[in-house]
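Exam revision sheet. Question 4 asks you to relate a sequence to its structure. Input first:
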Amino acid sequence: MASSGQPVKPPKRWFTVAKNDSTLSPSHAVYIGDLNKAELLAVLWENASDQLGFSTLWTTRKCFNGALLVKFAEKSLCTHSFIDVFIGRPIFLHLGPRTTYVDPLYYDRFSGIGSFQRAVSELRNSKNR
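Answer key, structure tokens:
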């Protein structure tokens, strides 16, 4: 209890993790239900900034590209649905198999405003070609 006799409220969390079935659509969420989550994770990684200061050995595009990157993303998504850091780059997204909407706030925080939407658009455009 605080000195005034009122109960102390717990501090707000830095971020909240969505439920495994994030099907709700908040106004700022982006629809990803039609996309392959491993391909999306690969595109997000390619467009993510390297602001966490990891070694360039892990983050270089020469090491992970194309099919190898998608294969590694598939293996990662088999064991984890919430991806905080993927191969040294900040992602901070829930990409579970039943996820249809994603809140891009934390991805955009590290990679720039609108980065998530641009990555999703890039993936959709490559599918339409």
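Marking note for examiners. Helices lie at 37-47, 56-59, 66-79, 105-111, 115-128.
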